């Protein structure tokens, strides 16, 4: 079809679209579609009239005003075309078409844009710009590849022996890597002995390592015994490390129960740590006690942190109380802090009294502060009966203030009521500002509100500026009129930061009583400001 005929057909289609557009009574979205279609029709009429300057401006305005319109790609194409007609530099027009194809690769105008780029690039190459010759060659090759790919997919859908022969012949003759990779995955879809024979030949003998890997990866999730056996063979004894990795990756997706035995063997005995790690990860999908026992054995015996981490991650999908002894060893042996942290959180995900008792034991047995902190977090994550008591005991008796803080804050996440009276008793006993601040935060988050009277008295007696502001913010979060007198008094504090925090807390409460307090503060501040002396008048 000629380019001019495409103009005419596009114009007719546009008029037809405009004719069926909903009227003003339609929904807002329909009216928006109508606006962009009208704008495009008007701009396109300028193209048909060859008023290139006006057309360019109209198309630019449409793209700017309706960037998500269905007509946006059309407008961008005509914008490039108008620039060419206006005599702008061929280089800039070439770039315009290139950006259009990059942004709108599926546009119906993409082929026309490529054709125009070939024409412009050829002219530029003849004009002494040899760099455009290579770009034109690439465009021509891309067009050829697109056509051939479309034909290939049509042949694949036919699925007969003649189609298969054509596809295999093309693989053997083409040097285009894009075509070759597509053909490899098409061969797996044929489900025929001839197709598998070719795929096997590529996997074992193709001189291109990327093609060999692609052939192996295409067999993932295959239920063909021949494919599974080939993958096993390459995974266990392949000479190429990358080929073996590709085979292991494909085996990870296989549904054959016998695959688990091979992955176990590789995980336990493989000298290449990366391949062993991949095999361990593959065991995560394996079913049955054999795979589970292998993961636990790897977790216990492996000297490689990466492989032990992979084993722990494979175990993480299905932890249960039987894994707790293995997790204990990982946590307490002190070899790897990151693994210990992962193991603690896995224990926190195991429901029931056994795992909670386990976490409590770790908290008491470990002398490592980081392990203790993560144990407290895991206990809070675990939740359930007895968790509040464990955290409160840690908050009261922990020698490290960071642990006490972690325990107090952990109480907020358990879902149960915070033991207000016990926290207030801790507040009176502790000398740690860090612990005090955690108590105030926990009380502020307590459902039903913090004990305002107690917080008010603590505010009056507190001398630390940061803690005063924490109490003030806690009082503001109550959004209760009972807090207003305490905040009004704090607003008169000589500590400017505390006074400012009190004003903001009153604004947060926002009740009529709080607003009255804010007006009182304003009026009192105004009355306290020194008055300017009037200049004396001359007699």
Short structural description:
The chain has 539 residues and is mostly helical. The chain has helices at residues 3-19, 28-48, 52-65, 72-85, 90-103, 110-126, 131-158, 161-173, 177-190, 193-205, 209-217, 225-237, 241-252, 258-269, 273-282, 289-301, 305-316, 324-332, 337-349, 353-365, 369-382, 387-397, 401-412, 420-429, 433-445, 452-461, 465-478, 484-490, 496-509, 512-528. It is flat, with a radius of gyration of 37 Å.
Task: Explain the overall architecture.
The chain is an all-alpha fold. It has 30 helices and no strands. Helix 2 packs antiparallel against helix 3 and helix 16 packs antiparallel against helix 17. About 5% of the residues have low confidence.
- Uncertain segments of ≥5 residues (pLDDT<50)? 4-31
Helical percent range? over 70%
The portion of residues forming beta strands comes to under 5%
Q: Calculate the mean pLDDT score and round it.
A: 79
Largest sheet: none
Structural class: mainly alpha
What is the H level of CATH, i.e. the homologous superfamily of the domain at 3-144? Tetratricopeptide repeat domain
Individual helix count? 30
Cα-atom radius of gyration: 37 Å
Named CATH architecture of the domain at 3-144: Alpha Horseshoe
What is the succession of H and E elements?
HHHHHHHHHHHHHHHHHHHHHHHHHHHHHH
The CATH class label of the domain at 3-144 is Mainly Alpha
Distance between the termini: 102 Å
- Name the shape in a single word: flat
